[in-house]
Amino acid sequence: MTAQILTRAVTIIGSDDDAVASARTLAAEFAVDAAERDLNRILPAAEIDALSAAGLFAITVPREYGGADVRASTVSEVFRLLATADPNIAQIPHSHFVYVNLLRLTATSRQREQLFGEILSGGRLANAQSERASKTVRDINTTLKPIGSGGFVLQGTKYYCTGSLFADRIPVLARLDDPNHVAGLEEGEYVAYVPATTPGVTVEDDWDALGQRLTASGTVRLNDVQIAAEWVVPRNPAFDQPHSYGAFAQLLHAAIDVGIARGALDEAATFVNTKSRPWYEAEVEHAASDPLVIQRFGELSVEVAAAESVLRTAGERLDRALAMPHEQSATEASIAVATAKILGEKASIAASSALFEVSGTRSAAAELNLSRHWRNARTHTLHDPIRWKYQHIGRHALSGTAPPRSAVI
């Protein structure tokens, strides 16, 4: 039930500013070939290795374990920068940071010491969480059964396992199947941090979607996978008290959407300035001088800037909630993050669609692959419906009702 975890030569980032600077440098590099990678389905293995080497996977490891322990708002900015360049690369480490956060909340000190040490040595996490056969996304059929002296066996199939092809450990969400209480654990959901090379683990590169094509979000099959109890972490306690566990995960999703919006708007501006022809009725020399095009860019710029501003505010609210956790601060953070998610989704879809409107017929050429912005926006924003975020925001505005303690708010 043990497997060797790969270690890598990595930089240890020491501050929030260093994390953002590193992400900005890498994002500029990743943007160069983003269209080609998507067009030809070239998985970003080298780019993910570069993120590891730069130390960005370890930036939330607590200081007492040797990490930079950067603020949530800093992680959000790292994701936004990466998503502006290539949202596939931004989404791949999303689950890594969520499951590092779970370790902070519910793991034992021994588990933290071991797993944080692996992450500081370049270890990467993914996820095996979602299922297709269950009634709703919250229902989990994958089982975790005790098999004797401190061990368990996992059985199930997971889908949409983002980043699984690049992971050293795959955190698997499972429900405890122990009617006789052999393991002495409370009923509920647990996450097993399974080494990707464990016998019985099969990672399939079968992700075939409209957008976010390169996130390695394929299938993970678990066939009698044995895992030691030391790598099993309870999930339910993360929701037992004001925690902002869900708000942190959602903040990073919002940052991806906002990054997509900025990337689409920037590419539209470049195209109009360098390739678009002016419409003859405008009677101007350049497309960028068309007053109707200027008007549209003004509208889009305001929408994207508003999403960016609200994202920053949400990050700051979450920073405060994590520093001083209580019901009010957690509620304020969740509402702010939900607002950012709504505006990010709307801005990403609007900007990526309007790119063609303002750029003209030439922008539809398949070889340019400008459609990737809209495809990525439309696919990523399906992650969880904003219509329910409006509900939670509305209830809070009308009656002060706090949103539920959930992974999606």
From TrEMBL:
It is found in: Cytoplasm. It comes from the Bacteria. Its EC number is 1.14.14.21. One of its GO terms (biological process) is L-leucine catabolic process. It holds the Pfam family Acyl-CoA_dh_2. This is Dibenzothiophene monooxygenase. GO terms for cellular component: cytoplasm. Pathway: Sulfur metabolism; dibenzothiophene degradation. Belongs to the DszC flavin monooxygenase family. Keywords: Flavoprotein, FMN, Monooxygenase, Nucleotide-binding, Oxidoreductase. It comes from Solicola gregarius. Its main location: cytoplasm. Residues 21-122 form the Acyl-CoA dehydrogenase/oxidase N-terminal domain. Coiled coil: none annotated. The keyword Oxidoreductase applies. Residues 136-225 form the Acyl-CoA oxidase/dehydrogenase middle domain. GO terms for molecular function: 3-methylbutanoyl-CoA dehydrogenase activity; flavin adenine dinucleotide binding; monooxygenase activity. Residues 251-384 form the Acyl-CoA dehydrogenase C-terminal domain. It catalyses: dibenzothiophene + FMNH2 + O2 = dibenzothiophene 5-oxide + FMN + H2O + H(+); dibenzothiophene + 2 FMNH2 + 2 O2 = dibenzothiophene 5,5-dioxide + 2 FMN + 2 H2O + 2 H(+); dibenzothiophene 5-oxide + FMNH2 + O2 = dibenzothiophene 5,5-dioxide + FMN + H2O + H(+).
